[in-house]
Amino acid sequence: xxxxxxxxxxxxxxxxxxxxxxxxxxxxxxxxxxxxxxxxxxxxxxxxxxxxxxxxxxxxxxxxxxxxxxxxxxxxxxxxxxxxxxxxxxxxxxxxxxxxxxxxxxxxxxxxxxxxxxxxxxx
Length: 123
What we know:
Blueprint: E1 8-12, H1 17-31, E2 36-42, H2 52-66, E3 70-76, H3 85-98, E4 102-104
Parallel strand pairs: 1-2, 1-4, 2-3
């Protein structure tokens, strides 16, 4: 996975999570001249509103609208995210390559109906 450096990197489980939680912050940072990146952990293939291909197209349009310079996908299994060594290593490698000054992460306790939003140590 080729990764360019960014000033700010937002990480979330699904392709629409960053837009819903911190899209305004990303747009404002991009408008101020900062290189903004997004790491989506899954393709959202378990979503009820569209398939992975539809969500990918929507994510690209959203990234362009927000001024996101880099959008990556870790291709982890939707609804089956694990807080294990292999998953953490994959995310850490992206962060090290992107070298962001700021990382935005989801709140540690997500919606109970969405397993990918509530990954805890050992889960």
